[in-house]
Amino acid sequence: MKKAINVIGWIFVSLTMLTLTCTLLTTYLYVRQISYFNSYSTFQLCMALTMMIWAVGMFVDKRERSQNLLYSIFCTLIAVGTVFFMYIGVF
To answer: Transmembrane stretches, by residue range (predicted)?
Structure first.
């Protein structure tokens, strides 16, 4: 279970980095054909999903390190903050 969550977490980190790169390229008009990346909403969604997966992964690993519970709470707060900004329309 821990290894599967870890692998999924790293896949989402890679996806988030790719999304950030595409968003920056589209924002600075180097690439115009990618319409999904015209605003930061795709990046915010990927960031929220990545933080939630890391929060679950650290919550599962909380027995190995006592700080993982605190890190899990911080990841959850970042994800909730990102979703809140998506909800109020900050792109």
So the answer is: 7-31, 37-57, 69-90
